[in-house]
Amino acid sequence: MAKTFEVNKTIKEINERIKNGKAVVVNAEEMVEIVRSKGKVEAAKEIDVVTTGTFSPMCSSGLLFNIGQEPPTMKTSEVWLNNVPCYAGIAAADSYIGVTEPAEDDPLNKVYPGRFAYGGGHVIEDLIAGKTVRLKAKAYGTDCYPRKEIEKDITLKDLPNAIMLNPRNCYQNYNCAVNMTSRTIYTYMGPLKANQRNANYATAGQLSPLFNDPYLKTIGLGTRIFLAGAKGYVIGAGTQHVKNPARNERGIPLGGSGTLMIKGNLEGMDPRYFRGLSFQGYGCTASVGIGIPIPILNEEMAWFTGVSDADIQMPVKDYGYDYPNGIGRALAHVTFEELKSGEITVNGKVIPTVPMTSHVMSLEIADKLKSWIQKGDFLLTEPVEEIEST
Amino acid sequence: MTENKNFNKIVHLSFPPTVSGRPVICNLGKLYNLSFNILKADINPRHEGSMTLEIMGPEEEFHKGLNYIKENGIKVIPVTQKISRDEESCMHCGMCLAMCPTGALSLDMDTRKVLFELDKCTACGMCTKVCPVNAMENDPQEKENRTT
Ligand code: SF4
Ligand code: SF4
Fold first, then answer.
1. ipTM greater than 0.90, yes or no?
2. Cβ B99–A200 below 8 Å, yes or no?
3. What is the pTM of this model?
């Protein structure tokens, strides 16, 4: 069962090379050409780490925070940050704010399509940027926690704990969305014009973390990553993780499959790599910048990280009728290379494509992680537990 | 860009306190073969007023009508000045590309950056609603007044 390889490296050895400033690090885009021209064995000998990056809307993200105590003590039961409701059903001063939560007085879709100007993602972006945020909390009062309300301005510095905790990030592959109905619809894939007049797609393609390690051979619980400009960690499979998806001959899943759960300290994050978003007619969310280093332990990992946009297929799905009715049918599969070319052809119809993931920012993140590793500021970790993916 | 009949442009007008804009604007329809939509108006007696107007009709008529407005002491600010992109904020995601009807927003295939060409922009405002980070600004004056 155990495969034997021509090239065998350990994370420990790679870390030694990083510490000595000798590690050879390239981004996932550069790796495509290296593997193509030199072959996987030579590439594996030469390259130690491939850095990936993505900057995409990731709705399943949020912030776990503690507001500290200011006597008389308080067990908060309702909490708001800048008027965005937080979940307070945990210990006395702990709460969680999710990026899709709109401000309490948001008109939502009452005037359709709504704007969703401010929500949980914007609060987190403001905190990262060092801005002042209005904290409001209520409690019913107990003998040990008598205080019933508090309202004050806070900044990130005033929070004893602020931990980004994202239940589902880094979707491995996704749908390309079109609309086959005769009116414009507003979705989490952006606005889709009637009669398939645009096709919206996400992910960073060949730069995307989980396309470069499709079986999650090196990514697991404990993997240190770039998270919004600081260091963060993978803490396991994300919600909705699919461990045994249908795959192409290269191992790339043919639809949405693997996901990661992520955490990291808000302190040190950069608002450039975490942006609160307003999706017209849909709601609030946030773009999260994530970069994952892939250690090139052997020629198999070199081969995987050599994945190019042409090797990635995405299902095209109708969000006008099929998706809301739970119909999973794919109208076609197109390659990421085709999507990036500006138009795709689905059943004979030419449709202009519209990206949702910033390629510019994804590349910047992969390159930033690359420079951290080159400078010896970032060491790789050995996963403590695998994430199942077959 | 070929069909002259359906010329459609948005202009921003600024009225000195002494001029009441209404009759002048109404004459656009009476004296010229034009129709118009008032998109935004802020007119107070004795104060400087402003109006954003969408004008439709043949291109020639449009220019004649515009001259008529100017002759009546109303300042015409081309609306191309009224849409701007906050370069710091734009993350080059590309979402605005879907809605831009004129190609003023386009994708540079080499750098994968989203380009914004002011001279192709008719200030239709579609991108300002789509952009998830509000990087496309409809009215720079509004922005200055907005504080957080
Ligand atoms: S949608 Fe906004 S952030 Fe995205 S490319 Fe367009 S202007 Fe820039
Ligand atoms: S306002 Fe925006 S969408 Fe409309 S033409 Fe100008 S750039 Fe394009």
1. yes
2. no
3. 0.85
